[in-house]
Each structure stands twice: as structure tokens, then as C-alpha cells.
Amino acid sequence: MSKLDSATIEAIRAAAPNVKNGTFTISHDERGHYTLKLWTAVKGALADKRIISMLVGPDNTADYQAVAFWDDAKRLVFPWRRFRGPGSTMRIDGFTWQAAGWSSIEQKLAIWADLAIRGAEPDAHGFWHQEGYALLAEGRCCRCNRKLTHPESIQYGIGPECAKKGI
To answer: What gap in Å lies between CA 105 and CA 97, rounded to an integer?
Structure first.
């Protein structure tokens, strides 16, 4: 469990800008990577709600499944009921969390929240950052401008298909 006092938590929350809509790849050298997309619904029953979706298929532009809501003011992730573990009751944020009883999706959301709120700062107290996870912002291929979600592709700025063709 995170060990920050409430004054430190509030100071970080006040200083942290709102998390912008976009695609985020979370990478770990030994545990692989996964991709989340934060977006704002514009119409329907969920209009103006911020939704977190997880990449679940090979098409990194369309194969996303919505799994949670994001609250900017509180810096909280609210996983949808069907994605919660049997023993999970805590709301997930970058400050107070525990992994006991969480589903794998809740664990991934907790890592993202921690990194998105404070893990990118070199002097931050981000737990997951210290555990070797990195948050990579969305990249675009320099050849075809398609979205990149694989850590190596983001690092080099080119997707695997375009890399085969050459620049």
C-alpha cells in the first residue's frame, strides 16, 4: 500500500494537471506491455464522462474495450463492476491502493493511474515507477502516421511494417 501522508497526496493532486485524452502504453522490460486509451464520450447516456478502454486485439485503432471511468477532480479510476475482482472494494488512484483481491484489469488500471498522475516526474514517489514500469505517450509512425502502441515502435518512431519497407 502507498505510504504517502494526506498533505503530500493533496499537494501532488493540486500540482498535477488533468490527464489528457490519448493513448498510453505501459511497459515493463520483463512483464511486457499493455495499452490503455482515455477518451471523453460526446453523446448518449455517457456524454462528458471520461472513459478508459483497454486494447484487446491486434488493431491499435479500433480493438479497445471500455473498462472504467476516470474522474479528473478526484484522480480516481472507477472500474466497471464486471471487471472488478471478487474481493476488491477500493477505488483505484495513484495514492491509496492495494493489490489484494484485484482483478488483472484493476492492477493494470492502478499502475496506469499511478504513472499518469505522478510517475513521470523524476522526483515523484510513484510506486510502480520504482518497480520498473514506464508510461509511454502515444507515438505516430514517421512513415505512415499510424498510431504506435508497442514500446519499441514508440522508441524508434516507426511501426514494424514500415520498418520492413524502409524509410
So the answer is: 14
Cα 17 from chain centroid? 15
pLDDT category at 12 given cuts 50, 70, 90 is low
Cβ(72)–Cβ(19) below 8 Å:
yes
Please check whether residue 29 lies inside any domain of the structure: yes
Radius of gyration over every alpha carbon of the chain, rounded to an integer in angstroms: 16
For 86-98, the pLDDT digits (tens) are: 876 666 766 666 6
Q: How many domains, in total, are found in the chain? A: 1
Average pLDDT over residues 2-23: 70
pTM of the full predicted structure? 0.79
What element of type H or E holds 108? helix 104-114
Report if residue 1 sits inside a domain. Answer: no
